[in-house]
């Protein structure tokens, strides 16, 4: 079971699912109680606001959708995974699904980390963003980054997704120029994220998150092994899970390493539980696994009951 990283997603794609699916309604009620407001209402009201794409309530809504879809896949499709994984923000759903952190605590963790990050980036790396590029061979990317080096511009590679597919953190004032250069080198620009993520330069944020947030949570040994998104390590104890949650702030994600680990452990099928336009579609995934997309539309689609064998013979 793979829980995707959080990219831009719209209320119109998941709103009906959140409102009507029993798993989602149950989890939303828990989330509302934890944070003290209606996650559904805030998400609906802010849907058109680009600045709220990664806001606290949007993150909680995404978490709720992903876990509710996994619940649905177990109940309706009979999925019984042997491992779970969650690149980037998908970590939160993965550790909950694996039993290392109760849902209530993950909601609280998500809310507190969102506030922690917002406070940090108001004071440090205030101009930083993370940008996604695709169809960009590594040598071409390094050429573009070398040009930033020559100008004295900071940058970090924040994610290795597939061949030619990277997340790059840099200052927003040079973003347009960087995007133009990527295009000139034959690459393609996707979306840009704020707050920025997974950059080695954010070591102070990792320390802040550990001291002010994660230190107040008790992480348990996972009941289901979790594939770490920084190096593909298979995590079976609480210390490993806690380290992964902290390393997300200043270590890049490496999806190819995660794929290698899953293959080494005999995985042949992955269910992508949640809104995803990335991890379930890249070549590294589809070339190695049968991919089952578990999204809100699929969960809302009426399922046709199979006719009995006797009736079928008639």
TrEMBL record:
* Lineage top rank: taxon: Bacteria
In short, the EC number is 2.3.1.39
Malonyl-CoA-[acyl-carrier-protein] transacylase small domain mapped to chain residues: 132-193
Keywords in UniProt for this one? Acyltransferase, Transferase
The question of whether Acyltransferase is a record keyword is answered with yes
Name the enzyme group at the top EC level.
Answer: transferase
InterPro entries from the xrefs? Answer: Ac_transferase_dom_sf (IPR001227), Acyl_Trfase/lysoPLipase (IPR016035), Mal-CoA-ACP_Trans/PKS_FabD (IPR050858), VinK-like_small (IPR049416)
Q: Which reaction does it catalyse?
A: holo-[ACP] + malonyl-CoA = malonyl-[ACP] + CoA
Q: What is this protein called?
A: [acyl-carrier-protein] S-malonyltransferase
């Amino acid at each position: 079971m793979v829980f995707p990283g959080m990219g831009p997603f719209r209320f119109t794609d998941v709103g009906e699912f959140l409102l009507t699916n029993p798993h989602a309604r149950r989890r939303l009620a828990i989330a509302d109680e934890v944070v003290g407001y209606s996650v559904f209402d805030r998400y609906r009201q802010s849907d058109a606001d680009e600045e709220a794409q990664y806001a606290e309530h949007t993150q909680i809504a995404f978490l709720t959708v992903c876990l509710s879809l996994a619940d649905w896949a177990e109940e309706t499709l009979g999925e019984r995974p042997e491992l779970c994984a969650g690149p980037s923000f998908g970590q939160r759903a993965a550790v909950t699904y694996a039993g290392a952190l109760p849902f209530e605590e993950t909601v609280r963790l998500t809310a507190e980390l969102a506030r922690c990050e917002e406070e940090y980036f108001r004071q440090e790396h205030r101009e930083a963003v993370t940008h996604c590029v695709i169809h960009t061979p590594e040598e071409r990317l390094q050429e573009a980054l070398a040009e930033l080096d020559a100008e004295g511009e900071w940058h970090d590679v924040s994610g290795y997704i597939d061949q030619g597919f990277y997340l790059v953190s840099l200052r927003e004032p040079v973003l347009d120029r960087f995007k133009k250069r990527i295009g000139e080198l034959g690459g393609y620009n996707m979306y840009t994220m704020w707050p920025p993520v997974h950059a080695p330069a954010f070591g102070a944020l990792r320390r802040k998150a550990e001291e002010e947030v994660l230190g107040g949570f008790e992480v348990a040994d996972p009941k289901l092994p979790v594939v770490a998104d920084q190096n593909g390590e298979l995590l079976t104890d609480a210390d490993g899970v806690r380290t992964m949650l902290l390393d997300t702030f200043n270590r890049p994600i490496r999806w190819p390493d995660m794929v290698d680990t899953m293959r080494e452990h005999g995985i042949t099928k992955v269910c992508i539980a949640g809104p995803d336009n990335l991890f379930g579609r890249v070549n590294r995934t589809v070339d190695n696994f049968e991919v089952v997309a578990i999204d809100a539309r699929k969960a809302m689609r009426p399922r046709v009951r199979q006719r009995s064998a006797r009736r079928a013979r008639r």
